[in-house]
Amino acid sequence: MIVYEYPFNERIRTLLRLEDLYEKFKFFVQQEHPMQHHVALATIFDMLEVAGRADLKSDLLQELERQRQSLLGYRSNPNVQADMLDAILTELDGVSTALVAAQGKTGQNVRDNEWLMSIRGRTIIPGGACEFDLPSYYAWQKRSSEQRFNDIIGWFTPLAPLFDALALVLRLLRNSGTPVKMIANTGSYQQMLQGKVYQMLRLNVDEALGAIPEISANKYMLWVRFTSQGGDLKPKPLEEDVPFELTLCNF
Question: CA 101, 105, 109, 111: dihedral to nearest 10 degrees?
């Protein structure tokens, strides 16, 4: 099954973009070639661009506190597993505490590093980080992979509490919905949402079907149109019935 996710608002869109960048960063930083570490460092710069909103940290703290208060309300419910509830609450407290302790603007340690900022300025230019443009960066790339790894992790570490927080928020959001089996008749599906506010949509479709969803939604209506790819990879309307699972997520 392939899972497609669609954010209903800009805040969730930002979190999903940061999550995607974090997955990319984790992959490339674990590699050993200088070019792969270059991608990892460039990804940190991309993270700063996306996380540049001054209120992102406060948004996450507010959401974590809201989730904490909501979960505390389940303590008196006999159908709730107390150990699992306590584990989530402990995780919420730990992530919130670490995020509060992260002083200053997100990524300020990188912005204060003139050498990193010189690299960031050149990476915006296609091919701008060549050895003749940035000889000191070229020399750094010739260091051992372990040295480069430690440097990159050191630059990223102050950002880690933010990514721990968004990972927890997105996990709670994804777990808030219940998958429902649906059929897109002749490749199209519509559902009236009757003004109910959702944060995110998740759509599971069998990879073997070759069906690709194009999704649009607002608080009134959800519309999914499935397409397929031919030899030129250009999307083409899919006219057959498509079974899929739909999950509407909301805190």
Answer: 180
CA angle 161, 163, 169 (to 5 degrees): 105
How many angstroms separate the CA atoms of 144 and 114, rounded? Answer: 22
Please state, in angstroms and rounded to a whole number, the distance separating the CA atoms of residues 110 and 118: 11
Instruction: Identify the helix (H) or strand (E) that includes residue 10.
Output: helix 10-29
Three-class secondary structure assignment of 208-244 = HHCCEEEEEECCCEEEEEEEEECCCCCEEECCCCEEE
Query: Which are the contacts of 177, defined by CB distance < 8 A and separation ≥ 6?
Result: 202, 247, 248, 249, 250
Question: What sign results for the dihedral spanned by CA atoms 145, 150, 151, 153?
Answer: positive
Report the candidate in 106, 102, 100 with the shortest Cα–Cα distance to residue 52.
106
Token pair 């050993």 is found at 32
Q: Is the pLDDT of residue 52 over 80?
A: no
CA 98 to chain centre: 19
Q: How, if at all, do strands 188-192 and 221-229 pair?
A: antiparallel
The amino acid present at 118, given as its one-letter code, is S
How far apart CA 26 and CA 78 sit, in angstroms, is 40
C-alpha span between 162 and 107 (Å, rounded): 10
Could you say which DSSP state residue 158 is in?
Answer: G
Taking a C-beta distance cutoff of 8 angstroms, is the pair 176, 25 a contact?
no
Query: Cα–Cα distance between 9 and 85 in angstroms, integer?
Result: 28
Residue range 57-72, pLDDT digits in tens = 888 999 999 888 888 8
Share of the chain above pLDDT 70, in %: 99
* pTM score of the predicted model: 0.89
- CA dist 107 and 158 (Å) reads 7
Angle, helices 160-174 vs 82-101, to 10°: value is 150
